[in-house]
Design goal:
The protein is an alpha/beta fold and about 140 residues long. Helices cover about 35% and strands about 35% of the residues. The chain has a single domain, classed as STAS domain (Transcription Regulator spoIIAA, 2-Layer Sandwich), CATH 3.30.750.24.
Length: about 140
């Protein structure tokens, strides 16, 4: 069983080493979390630790890019569900892109895709984030 190598999660002014995960701030309040390797009983705590700093009321959207995620366990599903519940409770939006077929199937089996917008690419998500940014900017 091989787990992914150390990646870096970057938030505005500090860096947190996290196995298999990179978090980028696309624009104020909009984040992309890129997962790779496995999200399981061994890596879920590191993932939660990386996500924790952006689970704040000012976060408007979190996008999980799962292009390189090969495996997810029930503990990984828990991290995703916990993140989604928090962000939606705060009025933000949660999305996923580039799910591998086996990962998408697990989400379908767990009935976790209901009401969630999936994006085909980072560009499609960026376009959505741009539109959301304009929407929130015009409301202020």
């Amino acid at each position: 069983m091989t787990h992914s190598c150390i990646a870096t999660a970057i938030f505005s002014s500090f860096v947190v080493p996290v196995p298999g995960m990179v978090v980028r701030n696309r624009m104020p309040g909009y984040f992309i979390a890129t997962l790779n390797g496995r999200l399981d009983g061994i890596t879920h705590a590191d993932c939660e630790e990386a996500i924790a700093p952006i689970l704040v009321p000012s976060t408007k959207a979190i996008l999980f890019d799962m292009t390189d995620l090969d495996y997810i366990s029930s503990m990984g599903l828990r991290v995703i569900l916990k993140t989604r519940k928090y962000i939606e409770k705060e009025g933000g939006s949660f999305h996923m892109i580039n799910l591998q077929p086996q990962i998408e199937k697990i989400f379908e089996i767990a009935n976790m895709l209901h009401g969630m917008k999936l994006f085909a690419s980072v560009k499609e998500a960026d376009d959505y984030f741009d539109a959301m940014q304009k929407k929130y900017s015009s409301v202020s």
